[in-house]
Amino acid sequence: MQLGIHNASFSWPGGPAAIAPTIADLGSAAEAAGVAYVSFMDHFFQIPPVGPAEEPMLEGYTALGFLAAHTSTVKLQLLCTGVTYRHPGLLAKTVTTLDVLSGGRAVLGIGAAWFDREHEGLGVPFPPVAERFERLEETLQICLQMWSDNNGPYEGKHYHLAETLNSPPPVSSPRPEIMVAGSGEKKTLRLVAKYADANNLFGGPDEVKAKLEVLKQHCENEGRDFSSITTTTLARVDPETDTDAFLREAEALHAVGVDVIFVVPRGDNPARLADKLGKDVIPRLAELG
User: Fold this and answer.
1) By C-alpha distance, which of 152, 87, 157 is closest to 124?
2) What is the pTM of this model?
């Protein structure tokens, strides 16, 4: 079992000038601890219940590019990219750029988007949920085509690309990993089975187990090897405040098939969480396999 750190807040002491060094410290501490992933949110306003909209929030891919320059081993992703925020061709180019500059460490985490306030506030179109899922599937198809040898056109219901040229190609082989985030049984998990290398599920062990049974059926329908999909989730227990309870939760999640747990830093020093994980958590998780 592996751990990721999912940073959901930039409200740290020192104001805007302190954000960059705090991110750099987080990256260094995460790698020293043996953390496998570092992720940021893809939001432009802070979201409830993390904090009020006025709290600091960085553009995600710019922040990951900065983090790439201060790390060398952790995988880098947004958890997760909102499909509405970027044209699919430009998104593929953005993730490719991150992958090239990080030496093959980019992951495309993506979902259907949900936060209407920031869409309305910044003038970003926010189609109905059914259309957002249609756009999500087309975006996955476009990214996969741009990460292939096919430079030809793409014709979809919502997107029309005259040529899917993408040079330089990703460093990752054969391409960056794709995570489709969310637990919706009819649409999201079908997209995981059809297109993704990883999921991101919500809930405790029982809920995750039930969702994985649904995903297995989608994999059978798509002719997909279920075991090839990495299962991830967000921790519900803070290991800084109750390490033993976190480890019990991790063991229960591991037993139902979770491969990666993302932990969210609390407080004003995310590097402290990484230090805690390296000292007290990761060595014990290694015993789980």
Assistant:
1) 87
2) 0.96
Domains of the chain (ranges; CATH) run: 2-288 (3.20.20.30)
Is residue 27 within 8 A of residue 76, CB to CB? The reply is no
- Is 278 strand, coil or helix? helix
CA angle 119, 114, 246 (to 5 degrees): 130
- Token digits of residue 213: 């049974």
Across the chain, the runs of DSSP E, i.e. the strands, are: 2-7, 37-40, 75-78, 81-82, 106-111, 154-155, 160-161, 177-181, 198-201, 230-234, 260-263
DSSP 118-179: HHHHHT-----HHHHHHHHHHHHHHHHHHTSS--S-EE-SS-EES----SSPPSSSSS-EEE
Q: CA–CA separation, 5 vs 146, rounded Å?
A: 29
Grouping H, G, I as helix, E, B as strand and the rest as coil, residue 181 is strand
Q: Are 243 and 281 in contact (CB under 8 A)?
A: yes
Peptide bond into 49 cis (omega under 30): yes
The torsion angles phi and psi of 54, rounded to 5 degrees, stand at -75, -10
pLDDT tier at 289, thresholds 50, 70, 90: low
Condensed to tens digits (0 to 9), the pLDDT of residues 6-22 reads 999 999 999 999 999 99
Strand partners of residue 160: 155
- 24-40 pLDDT, tens digit each: 999 999 999 999 999 99
CA atoms within 13 A on the CB side of 14: 11
Backbone dihedral angles phi then psi of residue 98, each to the nearest 5 degrees: -60, -40
pLDDT digits (tens, 9 = 90+) for 191-213: 999 999 999 999 999 999 999 99
